[in-house]
Amino acid sequence: KRPRSMQVPYEIKPSSISGHGVFATAPIARGALLWKYEEGQSVVEHDEESLRARLKALSTAQATELLEHVYTWDRYVVEILDDGKFWNHARAEAQNTGNHPDGEPPGDGLSSYALRDIAAGEELLDDYSLYASLDWFEALCVECGAASCLSVGTSLA
Protein backbone atom coordinates (compact mmCIF):
# COMPACT_ATOMS: atom_id res chain seq x y z
CA LYS A 1 0.00 0.00 0.00
CA ARG A 2 1.44 3.37 -0.97
CA PRO A 3 1.70 6.19 1.58
CA ARG A 4 -1.12 8.74 1.42
CA SER A 5 1.25 11.55 0.54
CA MET A 6 2.31 9.86 -2.72
CA GLN A 7 -0.38 10.68 -5.26
CA VAL A 8 0.86 8.67 -8.27
CA PRO A 9 1.87 5.05 -8.89
CA TYR A 10 5.57 4.60 -8.07
CA GLU A 11 8.23 2.23 -6.86
CA ILE A 12 11.47 2.60 -4.93
CA LYS A 13 14.41 0.96 -6.65
CA PRO A 14 18.17 1.42 -7.11
CA SER A 15 19.08 4.68 -8.84
CA SER A 16 22.02 5.39 -11.12
CA ILE A 17 22.15 8.84 -9.48
CA SER A 18 22.46 7.85 -5.81
CA GLY A 19 21.29 4.97 -3.63
CA HIS A 20 17.61 4.41 -4.25
CA GLY A 21 15.14 6.63 -6.06
CA VAL A 22 11.43 7.15 -6.70
CA PHE A 23 10.36 5.88 -10.13
CA ALA A 24 7.03 6.37 -11.91
CA THR A 25 5.27 3.09 -12.74
CA ALA A 26 2.73 4.76 -15.06
CA PRO A 27 2.79 7.86 -17.28
CA ILE A 28 2.29 11.13 -15.35
CA ALA A 29 0.89 14.29 -16.94
CA ARG A 30 2.52 17.73 -16.61
CA GLY A 31 1.09 19.53 -13.57
CA ALA A 32 -0.01 16.35 -11.76
CA LEU A 33 0.34 16.36 -7.97
CA LEU A 34 3.01 13.75 -7.16
CA TRP A 35 3.58 14.09 -3.42
CA LYS A 36 1.52 16.06 -0.91
CA TYR A 37 3.23 18.07 1.84
CA GLU A 38 1.23 17.57 5.05
CA GLU A 39 2.78 18.63 8.37
CA GLY A 40 2.54 15.71 10.80
CA GLN A 41 1.53 13.26 8.04
CA SER A 42 4.21 13.29 5.35
CA VAL A 43 6.68 15.65 7.04
CA VAL A 44 7.89 17.05 10.35
CA GLU A 45 9.26 20.59 10.34
CA HIS A 46 12.31 21.06 12.58
CA ASP A 47 13.95 24.17 13.93
CA GLU A 48 17.51 23.82 15.23
CA GLU A 49 16.45 22.84 18.76
CA SER A 50 14.01 20.11 17.66
CA LEU A 51 16.41 18.67 15.07
CA ARG A 52 19.26 18.48 17.58
CA ALA A 53 16.90 16.75 20.04
CA ARG A 54 15.86 14.26 17.32
CA LEU A 55 19.51 13.51 16.48
CA LYS A 56 20.48 12.82 20.13
CA ALA A 57 18.45 9.60 20.10
CA LEU A 58 20.21 8.29 16.97
CA SER A 59 23.49 6.52 16.33
CA THR A 60 26.09 8.36 14.23
CA ALA A 61 25.09 6.34 11.14
CA GLN A 62 21.38 6.99 11.74
CA ALA A 63 22.01 10.72 12.25
CA THR A 64 23.96 10.94 9.00
CA GLU A 65 21.23 9.02 7.18
CA LEU A 66 18.57 11.41 8.53
CA LEU A 67 20.58 14.55 7.72
CA GLU A 68 21.10 13.33 4.16
CA HIS A 69 17.38 12.66 3.62
CA VAL A 70 15.87 15.95 4.76
CA TYR A 71 15.59 19.26 2.98
CA THR A 72 15.50 22.91 3.96
CA TRP A 73 12.58 25.17 3.25
CA ASP A 74 11.85 28.62 4.62
CA ARG A 75 13.37 28.48 8.13
CA TYR A 76 12.85 24.75 8.71
CA VAL A 77 14.57 21.47 8.09
CA VAL A 78 11.88 19.19 6.71
CA GLU A 79 12.04 15.52 7.69
CA ILE A 80 10.14 13.41 5.18
CA LEU A 81 8.27 10.56 6.86
CA ASP A 82 7.56 8.43 3.78
CA ASP A 83 9.09 7.28 0.51
CA GLY A 84 9.44 10.90 -0.64
CA LYS A 85 12.78 10.89 1.20
CA PHE A 86 14.21 8.87 -1.70
CA TRP A 87 13.69 11.70 -4.23
CA ASN A 88 17.04 12.35 -5.90
CA HIS A 89 18.72 15.48 -7.25
CA ALA A 90 19.11 16.50 -10.87
CA ARG A 91 20.46 19.63 -12.50
CA ALA A 92 17.80 22.13 -13.55
CA GLU A 93 17.76 20.87 -17.15
CA ALA A 94 16.99 17.28 -16.00
CA GLN A 95 14.64 18.19 -13.13
CA ASN A 96 11.12 16.85 -13.74
CA THR A 97 9.45 17.71 -10.41
CA GLY A 98 9.06 20.79 -8.25
CA ASN A 99 6.54 23.52 -7.53
CA HIS A 100 3.57 23.50 -9.91
CA PRO A 101 4.72 24.52 -13.42
CA ASP A 102 1.89 27.10 -13.59
CA GLY A 103 2.63 28.64 -10.15
CA GLU A 104 0.26 29.13 -7.21
CA PRO A 105 -2.58 28.36 -7.52
CA PRO A 106 -3.03 25.65 -8.72
CA GLY A 107 0.10 24.61 -6.79
CA ASP A 108 0.46 25.05 -3.03
CA GLY A 109 4.18 25.96 -2.99
CA LEU A 110 5.05 22.99 -0.76
CA SER A 111 4.01 19.79 -2.52
CA SER A 112 5.75 18.25 -5.56
CA TYR A 113 4.26 18.39 -9.06
CA ALA A 114 5.26 17.12 -12.49
CA LEU A 115 7.03 19.94 -14.35
CA ARG A 116 6.53 18.09 -17.64
CA ASP A 117 5.06 14.78 -18.79
CA ILE A 118 6.92 11.93 -17.07
CA ALA A 119 7.15 8.48 -18.65
CA ALA A 120 6.61 5.20 -16.83
CA GLY A 121 10.00 3.98 -15.56
CA GLU A 122 11.43 7.50 -15.27
CA GLU A 123 12.97 8.60 -11.98
CA LEU A 124 11.33 11.55 -10.22
CA LEU A 125 14.01 14.25 -9.78
CA ASP A 126 14.17 17.63 -8.05
CA ASP A 127 16.79 20.39 -8.15
CA TYR A 128 18.25 20.54 -4.63
CA SER A 129 20.09 23.78 -5.39
CA LEU A 130 16.75 25.61 -5.12
CA TYR A 131 16.35 24.80 -1.42
CA ALA A 132 16.86 27.36 1.34
CA SER A 133 20.25 27.88 2.94
CA LEU A 134 20.19 27.59 6.73
CA ASP A 135 23.61 28.33 8.20
CA TRP A 136 22.94 26.32 11.38
CA PHE A 137 21.87 23.26 9.36
CA GLU A 138 24.85 23.43 6.99
CA ALA A 139 27.17 23.65 10.05
CA LEU A 140 25.39 20.68 11.69
CA CYS A 141 25.86 18.59 8.53
CA VAL A 142 29.59 19.40 8.46
CA GLU A 143 29.82 18.54 12.17
CA CYS A 144 28.16 15.15 11.53
CA GLY A 145 29.94 14.40 8.24
CA ALA A 146 26.71 14.51 6.24
CA ALA A 147 26.07 16.07 2.83
CA SER A 148 23.11 18.47 3.00
CA CYS A 149 20.63 18.65 0.12
CA LEU A 150 21.84 22.17 -0.69
CA SER A 151 25.50 21.11 -0.76
CA VAL A 152 24.63 18.23 -3.11
CA GLY A 153 22.57 20.53 -5.33
CA THR A 154 25.15 23.27 -5.59
CA SER A 155 28.12 20.93 -6.06
CA LEU A 156 26.40 19.19 -8.96
CA ALA A 157 24.67 22.25 -10.43
UniProtKB/TrEMBL annotation:
Pfam families: SET (PF00856). This is SET domain-containing protein. It comes from the Eukaryota. Residues 8-129 form the SET domain. InterPro entries: SET_dom, SET_dom_sf.
